[in-house]
Amino acid sequence: MAAAAAAGPSPGSRPGDSPEGPEGEAPERRRKAHGMLKLYYGLSEGEAAGRPAGPDPLDPTDLNGAHFDPEVYLDKLRRECPLAQLMDSETDMVRQIRALDSDMQTLVYENYNKFISATDTIRKMKNDFRKMEDEMDRLATNMAVITDFSARISATLQDRHERITKLAGVHALLRKLQFLFELPSRLTKCVELGAYGQAVRYQGRAQAVLQQYQHLPSFRAIQDDCQVITARLAQQLRQRFREGGSGAPEQAECVELLLALGEPAEELCEEFLAHARGRLEEELRSLEAELGPSPPAPDVLEFTDHGGSGFVGGLCQVAAAYQELFAAQGPAGAERLAAFARELGSRYFALVERRLAQEQGGGDNSLLVRALDRFHRRLRAPGALLAAAGLSEAATEIVERVARERLGHHLQGLRAAFLGCLTDVRQALAAPRVAGKEGPGLAELLANVASSILSHIKASLAAVHLFTAKEVSFSNKPYFRGEFCSQGVREGLIVGFIRSMCQTAQSFCDSPGEKGGATPPALLLLLSRLCLDYETATISYILTLTDEQFLVQDQFPVTPVSTLCAEARETARRLLTHYVKVQGLVISQMLRKSVETRDWLSTLEPRNVRAVMKRVVEDTTAIDVQVGLLYEEGVRKAQSSDSSKRTFSVYSSSRQQGRYAPSYTPSAPMDTNLLSNIQKLFSERIDVFSPVEFNKVSVLTGIIKISLKTLLECVRLRTFGRFGLQQVQVDCHFLQLYLWRFVADEELVHLLLDEVVASAALRCPDPVPMEPSVVEVICERG
Amino acid sequence: MEDDAPVIYGLEFQARALTPQTAETDAIRFLVGTQSLKYDNQIHIIDFDDENNIINKNVLLHQAGEIWHISASPADRGVLATCYNRTSDSKVLTCAAVWRMPKELESGSHESPDDSSSTAQTLELLCHLDNTAHSNMACVVWEPMGDGKKIISLADNHILLWDLQESSSQAVLASSASLGGKGQLKFTSGRWSPHHNCTQVATANDTTLRGWDTRSMSQIYCIENAHGQLVRDLDFNPNKQYYLASCGDDCKVKFWDTRNVTEPVKTLEEHSHWVWNVRYNHSHDQLVLTGSSDSRVILSNMVSISSEPFGHLVDDDDISDQEDHRSEEKSKEPLQDNVIATYEEHEDSVYAVDWSSADPWLFASLSYDGRLVINRVPRALKYHILL
């Protein structure tokens, strides 16, 4: 810090930079040096500067300071201090001086003794050194004598040494010569004993020498002999090689020896491969035999094991040996091997595929996956060894193909399971009903169907999941990490299944037998609820489950949940609408028959509600119960608790009067129309076959709307007598009494029934309506 | 587009019978029959003045009974046939008769300064289609191209072919056929095909459509379960001889090729209640009109199964190069079937719709409450078809 502060101004005051340069610079530099020193000794300048009040080291009055000046000090004391203090300081000083004197004395004594002992020691050392010098001199002279003697000895031995070296050389040469002369016999012996390796080694050793000295007749003879023997040796080796019976390692040895003998590599490698082919084809044949239809085929795991150990292992050995032996062959050799491996590999793959195809029908994935895993794992070794042959790629391809087929198989399975569920439901619905037991069955059936489908889906997912398990060797291939998960499992299997489910369900809506007899309405209702459940929860659950199990890496576009949900919802809506139509049709037909077949002109005065109306109410109640099992109540328009009574009075007295009264008065035929038109102006148009919402009230409203509209249209086609009209009145009131509770807006029922009665009145040449009270009595009695 | 606005005419009574005056090809004229059990029924002759958008009406009394069906002779403007109810001592009989309207009303130009009710004239009865043997005439159909001498009536399960003789004053039963089978079979509707020299008639009963040869009175084809429920009406394509449209209580309109009756060519499901009437436009058969008891009238463009699937094919002679180019362009783009318009002017069920015989771009619809609405094909579409 101090240095920095000191260095601060320096750049501004470089020499020549400013007029006062030299004068300003000298103290500057000195101070800097001081600073450095002080920094070194841990004294900071700031520290020094920070205590000007303390004892200044330069102060001449400081007793302990370096610049102490007695005169100045005394002067200062005398000038500044009073007498008493002077006296005190004097005594103090005297005491201090005395203490210092005694201290000095003890120090001097102590050091004096040490000096004396040191002097003694030095003197003793002087004597010892003198003695040592003498001894060293003697040693030097002795050494000189020794050197002299040794020189003389070596001079005398020189001659003999040279002769020994020469003799040793001659000996070695002779041994080599002996080896050469013995070579033919040794070789013959080796060949006889079958120690081909030894023989080849000897031959190798002698070859060069013989080559060099072949101009000498004796050596030429040896060489000729050797060549003959070697040829025989090669002959035998080939013989052995061709016989083939021995395993791959021995063959490899033979080839190695032959190569060492300088046989043509090209030919050898052809032969080698031909032999290997024979062996591997043997393996393939045995595999094919396992495939054959007659013997009970071993399970697929065993099959791949056999293939793995037999064929792939063999292929590995061959490849390894080949590469070791024929490394010198370069790319052409490698290419030959690759072609060889490719050809045999493809045959092997064909066999494996045939075997795997037999496995497609089976339900158990784990065995298949394990078999595929082994298959794939086994092929990794030759794959690494022979990258050019593309074996491991081909293997991966096979695995992928099998995986795809499995996915298709599972999709089929799921579809079949769904159809099976539907058949079960149909049977359950068609089964003879136990009295009172039929009702709760529907919710149970729904739960059964839902859970069984879900469990099928889960089982399929679990089965398919085996393909991506960590320990499976092919699970980290890009296909299994990406496409398999997203396109295969998610899109193909799950989304595909949900779609096909929706389609199957929708097909019930437009079944050709439009009479509605084809599918029981309860099934429509159940499917509709099922689809709705899928829309609200199940789809997202299944997809989440899938996404969790198969960490889908999102490079492929996948169908979003919302699209599927929309599809399911649309299906549910169509099914429910169809249900409404079918049920509405059933009731409509009843009403229509009842209107069309009756002779309304000559009917008797009504005493009862017609049975068909009771039947309509019963059926509606039954439908209400049925729908109530699966769908929530839904929202009604606000209504008073005493609804039926209130509306009845309005309906039968005021409104009825208002609407029928003008009809009798001949003067105003217009009024009926006018009134009904005005009334219609204020009521909304009734969409009869309108889409329904997913609740009970809406469904029932739809059914009742359809039925009542049918009643209206049928009534308009008939002509009524007085009592016919009254019967209609009674019937409508009866319906009014019982149907309002089912619909969302009871006003709707009133409106439609009003219109029925009004139309009947119009279709009556003699319209005399019944007294409302009588109508009431009849209805209550009925 | 002021003159695209619908023209509405109100009748005092309920009505469900409507027909264009078939023999009239200049003036736009419709006949409407009313249904009233208490008053004398009427036939309203409704003239529509296209230029001024004005309706002129004349009323004829039809005292015989309420009219269920009406059809005009294709040859004589003054002749028409009705099916009507006669109520007599707790019996309802539906009869059919041929009538002649007063001469001065034929052309419709007759001014009726007073209210119609005071000066109502009466129809002149030409002949009854004798129904002693058969009651309940469902409908009467004239031979479409003929001289107004042949007529077919449908009664219960019988199909009767009449010859009108001595200027229609006498009806002679020429031949007849009947539906065999169990149950009470009843014809609901029938149409006479304008093709094959007018030798084919199609009828509807319950859910079945049948074709008949009028020469032998034998069945030619039969479409079982043509609709899920009752078939209400049918009509022949005026330009494609094997095509036929039908409608019914399943809210659907179906188009059939009678050579292959197993499957409809096309199905429309636009209405939300029973479809009572279906009519092909007389000259542009892609225009199909339907009326339904959901109180709507729907005009559909069924280009793909019409006789002009690639738009109007213009003769090469009378068009310039430019037009040629345009028509080529048009023929390239496939045209889509669609609903042209939904007309919601009615408040009650629409039981009858029909095209005008004079103006191919104009049609009328009649609802039960007596409201007659005259509408036009949207102008844009009209030009699209013409150009």
From TrEMBL, chain A:
Ranges annotated as biased composition (Low complexity): 1-19
Keywords of this entry: Coiled coil, Endosome, Golgi apparatus, Lipid transport, Protein transport, Transport
Cellular compartments annotated: Golgi apparatus, trans-Golgi network; Recycling endosome
Entry GO CC: cytosol; EARP complex; GARP complex
Keyword Transport: yes
Protein name, per record: Vacuolar protein sorting-associated protein 51 homolog
Function (record text): Involved in retrograde transport from early and late endosomes to the late Golgi. The GARP complex is required for the maintenance of protein retrieval from endosomes to the TGN, acid hydrolase sorting, lysosome function, endosomal cholesterol traffic and autophagy. Acts as component of the EARP complex that is involved in endocytic recycling.
Pfam family, one: VPS51_Exo84_N
Domain of life: Eukaryota
Region Disordered, residue ranges: 1-37
The keyword Coiled coil appears for this protein: yes
Family label: Belongs to the VPS51 family.
GO-annotated biological processes: endocytic recycling; Golgi organization; lipid transport; protein transport; retrograde transport, endosome to Golgi
Quaternary structure note: Component of the Golgi-associated retrograde protein (GARP) complex. Component of the endosome-associated retrograde protein (EARP) complex.
From TrEMBL, chain B:
Gene: EIPR1
Subunit organization: Interacts with two multisubunit tethering complexes: EARP composed of VPS50, VPS51, VPS52 and VPS53 subunits and GARP complex composed of VPS51, VPS52, VPS53 and VPS54 subunits. Interacts with SNAP29.
GO cellular component term of the entry, any: Golgi apparatus
Physiological role: Acts as a component of endosomal retrieval machinery that is involved in protein transport from early endosomes to either recycling endosomes or the trans-Golgi network. Mediates the recruitment of Golgi-associated retrograde protein (GARP) complex to the trans-Golgi network and controls early endosome-to-Golgi transport of internalized protein. Promotes the recycling of internalized transferrin receptor (TFRC) to the plasma membrane through interaction with endosome-associated recycling protein (EARP) complex.
Region (Disordered): 310-335
UniProt keyword list: Repeat, WD repeat
Domain of life: Eukaryota
UniProt similarity note: Belongs to the WD repeat EIPR1 family.
UniProt xrefs under Pfam families: Beta-prop_EIPR1, WD40
Ribonucleoprotein as UniProt keyword: no
EIPR1-like beta-propeller domain: residues covered: 7-299
Localization terms from the record: Golgi apparatus, trans-Golgi network
Biased composition, class Basic and acidic residues, residue ranges: 322-335
Record protein name field: EARP and GARP complex-interacting protein 1
SUPFAM superfamilies per the UniProt record, alphabetical: Putative isomerase YbhE
Renumbered ranges of WD repeats: 224-260
InterPro entries documented for this protein: Beta-prop_EIPR1-like, EIPR1, WD40/YVTN_repeat-like_dom_sf, WD40_repeat_CS, WD40_rpt
GO biological process, any: protein ubiquitination
